[in-house]
């Protein structure tokens, strides 16, 4: 008797396909790694954004010659750097800056890349040609030189300028990726069917094509989000990163260019490196779960 | 009453080549095809792969650009209309696609798939919409409870029926069926075909049935046209064409139907050999020097053949 009730319940659950958010949530719940990563990520972000709200950025960036290269202690939880600045404070503000930069670069490049990629892929022909030539042009530009020049000539170099200049160069990859997917999707009959059913182009692009490239976008978005966290560290390495007044994870890591710091003063660069590692990994794990949720065939539940 | 009249339809695709991707030649996918559909009948287009039968069907729903010629639907020419001008006609001309796997959006629920045409043409409350969708699901033999399922939860035959339900929601007059059963296995084919015939009587539909399976076409169609390399080579009542094929291509096509009885196999082989000999000896009677079939000439009031 009980068995029968069970099966009936199961059938009923299957009758109604769950909504998108519910599927994502179920997928994350089933994957312990993703769940753990999500909690870690949320905890770090809430702490970092919350704490930096109460911190004085100027105070952190202030040079104090009396406390240079101090080891971790109860006053300075993670010691100090060569300017006597608190590494822990820099780590908090740096994580916030790095994540904000990464989030906005990813968001802006995704918006631009998605719009142009979908248009190029769906319409093809001349539209595609024009958009692809613009992309070729942007790719052909010497990216690093442009960034160096912009960094040198802008009066105030801060997080916003950095986001803008990076967005200018990084949208091309996404546009190409989405175009290629859109090109193959538009040849499928469901797009033709929509056309014969009298659905306007913009509706087909938004409601037929977009959901079918969404898994690609989600995965790419997440991987980019993880990748862009470390983006500014290479520029900082070249000496064209963000100024020390706006610390980032890259700034902290680049202190390790000094062999003495690398060998003897681990407290300066290890926490930032670990932070990047943890952030990237947990974002990636969550991304994997989202990827499975976006594809009905890969779902675990 | 003539519902659809296709007159000297041509669909040519450019071949680009050379340094500046100039147009160097054209693929004449459809090259001067004319036929008429009467209200309530089923007209079959048969031919081998690449003969232009699907392209003809797609040109009628404007999925392909028409190079020249006329497509008269209830007396109005559709060939020259822009996307906007064609919209009112979309309601009357619908299409059933060949592949039930790619013709349904995998990310949409059955409800959204079948209601898509309704949402484009009518303002309905969600409850009314749901009721109509469930009615049609019931009509095509699927459980009305399955509106919230996704296409991948159905079998090929069921998916094809979802596609058919979608094409019926607007109560069209003409349905272009582009090889609607060739992706299905034989037992399901018969089921879907009979069901298409039932719907025809119920909704007074006219079918333009594109296919390569001669048995299916004979079962379904009142009249048919045989296409070869973008041209019609023979056109007439289905029985006339099956019993009395006049064009060498039609003869060979019909002779190529496999026979289930082993006793007649020898005869069939002989017939095919004879036809091959006839094809070689009287090629010029049926095709000009470019290998193009001649224009159709009537040999009886209902039967037209491309003869010199």
What is the structure about, briefly put?
The complex is a heterodimer of chains A (301) and B (308). By secondary structure, chain A is mainly α.
Q: What report would you give on this structure?
A:
The complex is a heterodimer of chains A (301) and B (308). By secondary structure, chain A is mainly alpha-helical. Chain A has one domain: MetI-like (MetI-like fold), CATH 1.10.3720.10. Chain A is 77% helix and 0% strand. Chain A has 14 helices and no strands. In chain A, 39% of the residues are buried. The N terminus of chain A is likely disordered. Chain B has one domain: P-loop containing nucleotide triphosphate hydrolases (Rossmann fold, 3-Layer(aba) Sandwich), CATH 3.40.50. Chain B is built from 11 helices and 12 strands. In chain B, strands 6-7-8-3-9-10-12-11 form an 8-stranded mixed sheet, sandwiched between helices. Chain B has a 4-stranded antiparallel sheet with strand order 2-1-4-5. In chain B, a hairpin with a 2-residue loop joins strand 4 and strand 5. The relative contact order of chain B is 0.14. The mean pLDDT of chain B is 87. The chains are: A mainly alpha (301), B alpha/beta (308).
Q: Can you give keywords for this protein?
A:
heterodimer, A: 301 residues, mainly alpha, MetI-like fold, 14 helices, globular, disordered N terminus, B: 308 residues, alpha/beta, Rossmann fold, 8-stranded mixed β-sheet, 4-stranded antiparallel β-sheet, 11 helices, 27% strand
